[in-house]
TrEMBL record:
Pfam families: Protoglobin (PF11563), PsiE (PF06146). Keywords: Cell membrane, Membrane, Transmembrane, Transmembrane helix. This is Globin-sensor domain-containing protein. It is a multi-pass membrane protein. It comes from Persephonella atlantica. The keyword Membrane applies. InterPro entries: Globin-like_sf (IPR009050), Globin-sensor_dom (IPR044398), Globin/Proto (IPR012292), P_starv_induced_PsiE-like (IPR020948). It comes from the Bacteria.
Amino acid sequence: MENFEQIKRDFEFRDDDVRNILRLKPVMEKYKEEFIERFYKFIFRFPEAGRYLKSEEIVKRHQDKLREWYDDLFSGRYDYSYFAKLYRIGEKHVEIGLPTHYVNASFNFIRRFFIEKINQEFGLSEERNQLVASIGKLLDINLDVLTAAYREEELSRYQIMSKFEKTLFVTAKKFSEMLDFALVGALILVSFFVLGLFVYDIYQLVFGIVPIDKGILMTLGTLLVLWAVSELMQEEIKHLKGGGFAIGAFIGVALAAVIRKILIVSLSAEKALELLSYGAIVLALGIVYWLLMNKKV
């Protein structure tokens, strides 16, 4: 871990900030239980919160640790033991596989909670501004130390690799990035084809090549597919920026394509069996999509 005094200097956390934190201590003490209650309401909004807090015993132990962290935050003692304790918390987060996104989002809630209470107690004043600035620095330091464990874990994994493994790792990463860009290019090409199909459907409808009812349904179905491909492309762009892989978007495209077929087949009374098979496919895809969008671990 980096020298803790250097960390404080980097964040310009000085003696006057410590005095401001101690000024806040008796004020924030009365909000501790409210903080615990609201914090838990907040984190249980995370889709996978139940994976990490899966029993009453774990929740109680975590609440006790959270109270201890709260007390330490306003203690005014920010020495080696304080930073070492923070780092151990970060290591525990890494050990259980807690996403850094959850840590960052939690600190955003904590910051907003403290500012809300400071505003209630001190109103709009210069003292309020100084208190908010000091607690903001301290929270930023906490977040920096907690996430340092994640950075060192990633670095240590890379360092223990052999030369061949490092080369393979870098090559695989570059190849994966190339495939992602190729997928975006393919989606752009598919979008043009679907757009061409939409124009062709309009052409058939306007010039009476197909019955008007069939033409309208074909056009609406193609428009649905075009919308789904657009959504898929947006999700893939998010993935290129570092987001997760959106398998749900691919299922959405499949649903749109099958629904288009249903719209067309529904006009023919002789294709009842085919219509039922398409309906079964939509039902299966719909269930998979619902499970993905509402998964709880």
